[in-house]
Amino acid sequence: MVSDWVLPDEVLANAPAYTPRSHELADLELLLAGAYEPLRGFLGQTDVESVLASGTLSDGTPWPTPVTLEVPEALVESLRPDSPLQRVLVLTDPEGAPVAAVDAVEMTPAPHGHVLVGGPVRRIGEVQQGPFRKLRSTPVQVRQSLTGSRVLGVIADRPLHRPQLAEISRAAHTLNAHVLILIPVADLGSAGLTPSALVRSILAARDRLPASTIVAVPLSKRGDEVRDGLLSARVAAAYGATHLLAMGRTFAGGSGIRVMLPRQLCYDVRDGQWRAIDEVEPPFRRHPMGTAEINDMLDRGFGLPDWHTPPAVAAELRRAKPPRRKRGVVVFLTGLSGSGKSTIARGVYDAILESGERTVSLFDGDVVRRLLSAKLGFSPEDRALNIRRIGFVAAEVAHHHGVAVCCPIAPYAAGREAARKMAAEAGGDFVLVHVATPIAVCEERDRKGLYAKARAGVLESFTGVSDPYEVPEDADLTVDTSELSIDEAVNRVLDFLTEGGWLETTGLGLSR
Ligand SMILES: Nc1ncnc2c1ncn2[C@@H]1O[C@H](COP(=O)(O)OS(=O)(=O)O)[C@@H](OP(=O)(O)O)[C@H]1O
Ligand SMILES: Nc1ncnc2c1ncn2[C@@H]1O[C@H](COP(=O)(O)OP(=O)(O)O)[C@@H](O)[C@H]1O
C-alpha cells in the first residue's frame, strides 16, 4: 500500500505544489488506491532503468512499465532529497486542490527543464468530483465485494457489441466465474470514444452481461502494447481478477493471472446465435464488424444493425458519435503569415453562416490575440499557449456540436497535435488545413509590412524568416493560394467538409 509517513501541517503548508499532467494524475490515483501494488510511489531513475532493462524494480520485484512524475525544475529546486522534512512535494488536482504528497527521495534531471521525482506518495485529500465516481471503487472495495473463487477480468476499452458479449458469457460460463468489467477512463478509448461515452455504452450492455461488477479505472495507455498489456493484467489482478479475457492482444506475465484466449466468433444467420467460426458453414457466417467499419457507419448516420449491436448500445454510440453533419468539428488552418488563412477562414465561416445549416464560430488571429491571448508574444512558449487556448475554446465549440474555424500560424507540430487531441477528447472531429502558399508569395503580398521589417531585422523571431515553421505531415487538406483564387481556395475547404459529411450542401456556388 501507499506510504504512511507522517507530515506536520506546516511542512505541507510550505511545500511546493504542482498539478501533474493528466496521465500522471491517473497514475497517482491508481497508486493511492493500491491498484499498482506493490508500488508505493513514483519510480526514481534507478527503478526506471531497471524496469526498462529487465522488467523488474531494482530490488528484483517484477514490474512492467515506468510509472513516473516529471515536474519543472524551478518548482523543486528548494527541495533537499536528503532531508525528510524538506523534500515534500504536494500534488494537486487541476482545480488546485491538494490530493497527495510525494516524499521526493530521488530527483534526477529530465529533458526540457524538468526533473524526474521519485518517491512514495501519501493521500492528503479526496478526489471528489468527476463523472461516474460511483464506479471508481478501490481494489480493496472490489475484492471485498467479490464472492467465489474465480473472477473473470475484462478490460473493456471499447463498447461491448454482441460478439464481445457472447464471448464474455461463454468464458464466464466455462469458468463458472463472476465477471469484473474494468473500464479504462484515463484517456480516449480505442474506438475514439470519450471516457464518459465509453462508460455509458458499456452500462447500456449491462443487462446482457452475466453476473458482473463494473469498475471505472484511470488506466492510461503509454503506447507500448506489451508493457500496457502487462500493466492492465496487474491492475486487473489487484482488483481481484483471477482470469483475464483477452479482448485484443493481452499480455499477462508476472501478474499471476490466467489469460483466456477468445475464440473467433461469427453470427450464424440460420438461428441468430454467435458461434465459433469453425462451427458455422461459410454461407451462413456473418463476421463481426471492426472499429473502423463501425465508426464509418456512425459517421454516415447509418444505424448499427441489431444482429451485431444491442439497440441500447447502438443508441449510446449514436449519441456519442452523431453523424458528422451534426457532430462538432474544428477546422484548423495553419500556414505562414500572409498565406491566406484568415481570408479562407472568413470565406468558410461566411458560407456556413449563409447556409444556416450549422452553428459556426470564427477564431480569427487578430481577435484571438486581442482578447483570448492578449499580452502573449511570439516566443515558443507564448505561441504554444496561444494555440492551447485556441484549441481549448475550439474544442468546447465542437463539444457542443458546433463548427469552429481557427486560423493561427500554429508553427509547431506539437501545438497542432495538442489541438487535435483536445477536439477528440471533447467528442469532436478535427480537420487540419495546411495553407501551403510559398513564402516568396506571402512575402510579396506583405500586407502588414512585417516581412520587410523581419528582413531588416527590426522585427525578431518572425515565422519563416527568423523563426521556424514545421510543415505539417498530418494535414487533411492542403491548399496553395498562389495557384488558386480566393473563391477556389474557400471552395476546396467547403468541398472537403461536404465530402467528409460535416456539411450537407454548403458551397460558394450554392450559397451565393
Ligand atoms: N514574430 C512574429 N511571427 C509571426 N507573426 C507575427 C510576429 N509578430 C507579429 N506577428 C503577427 O501575428 C500574427 C500571428 O499570430 P498567431 O497567433 O497566428 O501566431 S502563432 O500561431 O501563435 O504563432 C501574424 O498574423 P497573420 O499574418 O494573420 O498570420 C502576424 O501579423
Ligand atoms: N487565393 C487566395 N486565397 C487567400 N488569400 C489570397 C488569395 N490570393 C490573394 N490573397 C490575398 O493574400 C492575403 C492573405 O492574407 P491573410 O488572409 O490575412 O493571410 P494570413 O491570415 O495567412 O496571414 C490577402 O490580402 C488576400 O486578399
Q: What report would you give on this structure?
A:
- The chain has 512 residues and is of the alpha/beta class.
- It has 3 domains: 9-123, Sulfate adenylyltransferase (Roll); 130-321, HUPs (Rossmann fold); 329-511, 3-Layer(aba) Sandwich (Rossmann fold).
- Helices cover 36% and strands 18% of the residues.
- It is built from 18 helices and 20 strands.
- The strands form 4 sheets. Strands 1, 2, 3, 4, 5, 6 and 7 form a 7-stranded mixed beta sheet that branches. Strands 10-9-8-11-12 form a 5-stranded parallel beta sheet, sandwiched between helices. The chain has a 5-stranded parallel beta sheet with strand order 17-18-16-19-20, sandwiched between helices.
- Helix 7 runs antiparallel to helix 10, helix 11 packs across helix 17 (486-500) and helix 13 runs parallel beside helix 14.
- The protein is flat and about 75 Å long.
- The termini are far apart.
- Bound molecules: 3'-phosphate-adenosine-5'-phosphate sulfate and adenosine-5'-diphosphate (ADP).
- Adenosine-5'-diphosphate binds next to helix 11 and helix 17.
